[in-house]
Specification:
The structure is a homooctamer. With about 250 residues, chain A is α/β, with parallel strands linked by helices. The first copy, chain A, has helices spanning about 5-15, 20-30, 30-45, 60-70, 85-90, 130-145, 160-165, 165-170, 185-195, 215-220, 235-245; strands at about 50-55, 75-80, 100, 105-110, 120-125, 150, 175-180, 200, 230.
């Protein structure tokens, strides 16, 4: 029920053309629609400046483009995740302004520049070379959601001194995203160095008992540092999104 | 918001003492309460003749009795599951009409007899002697919810002919609950004999690779019979509840 | 042993051409055949108006068509599940009346219309876009088995208000099938809204710790709503079949 | 090496009493101590107004009290987690100002009141009655770290309307902690209602395939809402700590 | 239906007091009982000289004794497995002829001596000291079922030469039972030395990644020797029973 | 060291041309070779009439043929398992007498007919159509090792009466191999019908929580029938080999 | 067969009192004994200066003392692992020279001082306070086997600077044992700092997804440092033993 | 900061052109760089004669060659692991001196011969034919790192006598690498024969419950021999590297 309908009923009650009894009955059945109405408003404000996201895996280029077309009318920015190169090229041929980030496997379509809305800097760190695609997905997502983002890649714990070379950048971040596969130790070490929230992202990088990322995931959940929370394996997008939420608190 | 408040507002609109504009504002904010109101009604009808259930595990006899007292004013029947003998005796000393089913570890408090509401008979079958407590929990639950219930215990697949001895009873049931631990094969065999819905209940009975009931659970979910759906390990109550729901469709 | 043979023996006994002793010997050895005979009868009635089902995965188009040919003589309706498009086209070229439901990956061959036999409506709900194929399989199966079926797709718990938009349809269903992957939360929420049996279907949709659908499966088995029973991962057919069984109780 | 020692060396170089060569040798060996020096400073500021935390499980009352005594000289506030009642009473008898929160199993010793430092309100929601101890641990931790904290307990997804009754409180929170066992569905539903960071805490509440909390954990990591990050099973303290970090970003 | 009833019917048919038609009807309904009848015979022969077995775990001494009393009338030998000392003493006080094997945790009650029925010798080997109880259970079971049984305990693969000291005994066995925990390697080594069937029994002996015997179980199932089949973890009884079956082929 | 060499040394000692001291030294170092010598003898006798087996998976047709050529000189029969059709055709083009069993994926090359050496009949039963390849592998293996083998395929527990149709064949077998995927219930049912050893073979047939055969495997290990031992998933060859061993006890 | 028996035979051959033929027969059957003979020698030398170890868990004080008494005659040193305090006190009352290390739960009985045999120093590092017992077990074992051992406890990765405070000690070690529970990250970090072999010991310290030490174990096996090998969960003894072996290479 | 910069600062202090105060400030910020500097030195010496290793899996031939080019200037030897034949040929066409070991899937590029630096011999043993590639990877790695390496392949425990044929080689090794899949029993047997450190390498060879190598891994970690430590599944390179470290202790 929209506002107009409600006014209509109340006007009728006021005018005496609808009895109080009948109006009670009618209004006893407005429930979800009203909430829904509020929800839509709320959702609209919620999404302002935030990317709508299309999960590209398992969708054809045509399906992706179709969804993008519907969204393009209303949205300032559209993100597509997990889009391989071939799909991306097909999509880009239909949206002149769209940009493809190959390493991150993301397509970004912006109608205008995204203004920075986050309080501080988000820093994305990653452990091994193979973790970079997931780290890049986090990076692009956080940036697209209106944040200053920095990154330091390839600072695994087996050469811990490399991490210290970037201590200033680490100290200056307001939110940190730490991406690691294999033994997943990096988030613990980084979180021990700062008093900022750290979003840990396990990756499926590794073999044998890396168990497709479960080992890194479990290691991160067992972190002996308390300022760590974890997202799903390879979920760079989720980490970027969560960091953006935190950076606006 | 309750019905009275709503009538009050509408009467005021009708009488002109509240403007339409103000009433719109007020009513735009009634959402959940209204739904909740409806929900309460709905819930009340939902629960008619159906037991409220107290999960006894991890609660003291005092806590159980306390909850029962609050409920006793409104409810026709109260069920307590997973109550050991000691707790039960303490509870029963405070509720003269309550009955304790030791094997099923359940306490039942009825204010009046439960009339039969189910369409047909519910039959509870179980495989091994150790599965009987779970089977009894299902039995008592289904019965307390207003169903005719029969049972055949100790008809494991290692002596398949024992099952056939009860073929008539199996054929006559409208819903079947089949309880088994270890290899969990009984539901498949039973379901292959009937064209009725079978609720399979894995139990934690077994050792070694029974894995606390996971093996029986997975076996039941893999049943080569299609008229089988499964509840959690040792969840006799859930099976009885679900069977009662089905028997009223 | 069929009825004729039995009559033959008894007639001979009656006529004195077979001694009681010899007849006892003979009849002591009729066991399975007799039962089998009964079973066949029973099975025939069981299957009336119900689909025979061919699991298409791992079978060639030729094998599928071969089985269909054998069945076509006796059966009113033939269902094939998990048939990809290529196989389906090959099969359809040989059975003029067969229909292929691409999303559900099912082939349906009906000799005549299926009359509605279920008591009420079966409602199929699904959470995400990727869950739709499994939901469609449940839908087609339940429908082919003689039920009125409705569906609401894409009502995941992350936008819970969308669910409430369909509250009337949910309230009116006699049996509900709820399909969800990832965290598998939808069946709990839906089952909390109704006092009807809910068949929960976990799907393999997700990545990382979705563990190929195990997480959704376990979540559903742990539902805090009691009117939920669960089938195997991606088993839309089983859910439709079970719902049809329930709807005829 | 502290600053004074460094100045000493450089003064000697400046004064000519130490050769450049010798100073190079000496300074080539200051490495970690220097960092450590910096770290200590950093740590001190880091810990300002933040609780030191003693994990009480597996420690005797005597050991807990011993550590508290050492800390009491320097710290404004001391937290002990996972302390059962017996231990707590023994500890409290030695620290007159200490308070024991039985449900949360925490001991808090404050020298002075903690000023509120967080930006907004932290809201702790929990699903079932058995989840409350973990939720209380999160609550006490976040509060002790200088935050306004609210809580709504017992709002499981099986009665989703109860959640909506608290919609305003949910909308007003800047950070949300959502605690749930069994199927772990509550964080997804709550996160879908807000554009704020949600810390999900799985609990070990449940039986059968709750797998000691693994099911809830995996469900939360698979959340179809993106503003969710997860901590270890039953880790209420970690959730409270992480929320406090986020609320100060 | 027993033979007498069948004769009765046929006599009536023969005498003309029952029509063929009525007899057909009646006999169409004898199914399982007939089979059951056969089964009973079959079972009786099956059990000849073989122990009935009572699983003692989870039963009280009273329950065990009760079952034994019922069985004692008909059976030559009664076995009770997994009976701890206290229960056993209570049971033995009621059955003068019963013997308790403490290490094997078994009670054996024989009415007369069991004659040897197996073709050759059964040899029970075990790896570590802690595996002996399971090995003893296999030993007592096989012996009680009428077999010559030998045993060599404590011949783990870490001192492989100890195994060779018993090579003659190994070569002379007709069936071998090999019991091992931890890495479960012994069955592979032993099976490589003989061309006889080897029953492998994993035990729950070990810690850490022994995973309660799963590691030994999986290792045995992966044996690079082909003459190995495996029973459940700690299932000494099953191994003894299976070996007895094999030794009578 | 072969017998001749040993005789040589002893003759030299006897003749005085080798001192006792030197002979002691020499013989102290014959260990493994001597054993090996015995082993070779033993192995030769062991292998008499038994197939050498080549695991074809992961080997090229060329490699398989190469090994076959080396073996062909000495062996009466050669078995190749897990050989796909393409490889088999290539191999068969080089060995005129070799036969390819496509369903079993085995190549058999016999120099002469294998005489029957087993005591009784081996019966291979299998549950579903998809289990047949594994069942055929067991069949061919047992037959090639000199046994009479029978088979009954497609007797799953969902239509238990089909099993009883073959009761005589089941009763007459001396060893039974029972092959099943999905819930793996068939071995329990069959073993309950006989007093013969049953080798259970789980297959990887199924989907969802069949877990690649783990569910069937665990179900079989948990069999409530005691005359069951189990081999690895899909290990038809091992079951056939073990059954052959048993049939010669 | 011992050397004397062999000489006896050969002397008889030499003397002509035993024919070559008979000697061949006899010697064809000495195989294992000869090897065993060698093994015994080898084992004696192997064990020189090395502790025999009694696994105390699951043994009574009486059993432990009994084994110690048998060993005391021959051995220079006796180690007992996993002995709780009560058992230890009982054992110590019977062996005046024995020492109990409570934290390590070990009893050590030395007849004389153990001389240092290792090449360099073994360093034991551990992460959390709760890991110390396992670390102490490694320490005592390595020391008892004749090594200089140092230790640094409580240097978890959440405060990585604490580790660097001990850099010299780390650099100087020839073999390192690194003990850690929870996320198990310490071995990776330490191994990245040295070019020495690191033995990683996962502990069962942690809760939730520490999975009883599996997470730490898997993390260590996935170490991005290559100079790491791993022992079983909580296996401090094994790590100390392995380090001692390495230190003597 | 390199040594020259440090000298520069100190010279300026010495010369009075930089004040002590300014120098303190500057040097307070050299921390990591200094450590890094040290680390680089340390690393350089560490790497002397040791291979830098490129993990070839997931890299293109171009990427591999690119990294090799950068390294070639500084390094004496370059190792590439997990390079398939096609990639290797492409790489070799650009580096004339490079050698490809096909079985080990490794490329080795040496500028000059590697001098032997290890103390004793490293022996690589492997169980089955399919384990050879992993064993070869260990062999090539250890050899490239300056060790004498021997190997014995195909000595599985099912024919334990084959192992004894190589007893001398086993006794003479200073470090042993034992590679096995399936039940992973070989390391236990070998370690029981020697008093030397054994590095166990599980492989993913096997099917069914080999669980991709987890079973072999767990078996090895449960070894009843104490001189065993384990690396990740299929990690031949890590085993070779660790053995080289040990051989230089």
């Amino acid at each position: 029920m929209d506002k107009e309908s409600l006014e209509e009923i109340l006007k009728n009650v006021s005018a005496g053309s609808t009895s109080v009894e009948d109006a009670v009955k009618t209004l006893m059945h407005i429930h979800i629609e009203d909430i829904d109405y509020a929800h839509i408003d709320h959702h609209r404000s919620l999404r302002k400046g935030f990317p709508e996201v299309i999960f590209g895996e398992g969708k054809t280029a045509g399906q992706i483009a179709g969804i993008m077309e519907k969204m393009a009318a209303q949205e300032e920015i559209i993100l597509v995740t997990r889009a391989d190169k071939e799909k991306a090229e097909s999509v880009l041929s239909r949206f002149s302004g769209a940009v493809y980030y190959e390493e991150a496997r993301m397509i970004v379509l912006k109608k205008k520049d995204i203004s920075v809305q986050g309080r501080g800097k988000i820093l994305v760190l990653s452990a091994g070379t193979s973790d970079i695609p997931v780290a890049r997905e986090a990076y692009i997502t956080a940036q697209a959601m209106g944040n200053d983002v920095d990154s330091v890649f390839d600072v695994g714990v087996a050469g811990i001194h490399r991490l210290f070379n970037h201590k200033k950048m680490i100290d200056d971040a307001s939110v940190l995203i730490v991406v690691a596969g294999m033994e997943g130790a990096l988030p613990s070490v980084v979180a021990g160095m700062v008093s900022r929230p750290v979003i840990a992202v396990p990756t499926s990088v590794g073999y044998g008992v890396s168990l497709g990322g479960l080992t890194a995931l479990f290691a991160m959940l067992n972190s002996c540092s308390s300022n760590v929370a974890v997202v799903n394996i390879d979920n760079g997008f989720g980490a970027g999104y969560m960091a953006a939420m935190i950076n606006r608190v």
